[in-house]
Amino acid sequence: MSEETNQPMEKVEEFTKVESIFIRHKNVLFVRAQFTPVYTDYYLHLMDQKMRHKEELDQKLKDLLALQTLHLVARPWAETIAWTVTLRAPRVNFFVTGGSVYENITGTLFTDNIKEPDRNILYSQTTVNNENGRKSTIELESNDPIEWVETYYLQSEQRPARAFRLKDDTYALLAAQPDADLEWLKGLTTEDVQKITEVEETKVLETRKFRFHCGCSVEKIIPALAGYKDNKEALFEGDPVIEISCPRCGNKYLVTPDML
To answer: What is the pTM of this model?
Structure first.
């Protein structure tokens, strides 16, 4: 119970449930989810690492976490996808990655020691079973993650898609399928998307669930330092311990020379 209201506190689900819905007669795939569970774990992660991002950058990272999750559900199960977005102003790198096999999404951002790029770029890498997969590089014209994803679909997926921020941490992605009604898709508004299942004939194809989770550990980080095994002084510079960050989520780990 909440002491202030004496009302039951609303329970936050452990996972974000992502629905994949086919819109009949429009031939459009409609993927949507409410991301409060993912964002709750994301903020718990930041608190645990004593990290805090500027509000504008924090929102962009949250957008990317949500939009990549929807994209993953629009793609085959076995894929792992990583996006890196490099912006000129503000000078920042975003990184998000996830996969449906383990139903996880994670990400972080970097603002220190970033070389200024000559343009805004989205780098995408899609792998299956850890094998070399498809890579693409997309030039971005705006600072809005919604537009980044729509541009990505046009250039890399080679089909139109629309992305939307809805109410209460809910996002939607609508991707054209063969013989899609492109005029209908292009003309959609946020209000239209809110009521699609009420006014269109739809069929739920599947439901997947995601959580914010990296799975990193110091044991997984140390192999990246193998090159220093015979030259530890170059890495530690006389310090008895150094701090290493996970490049996927920003988790910090302490490493000593004997651990190598």
So the answer is: 0.90
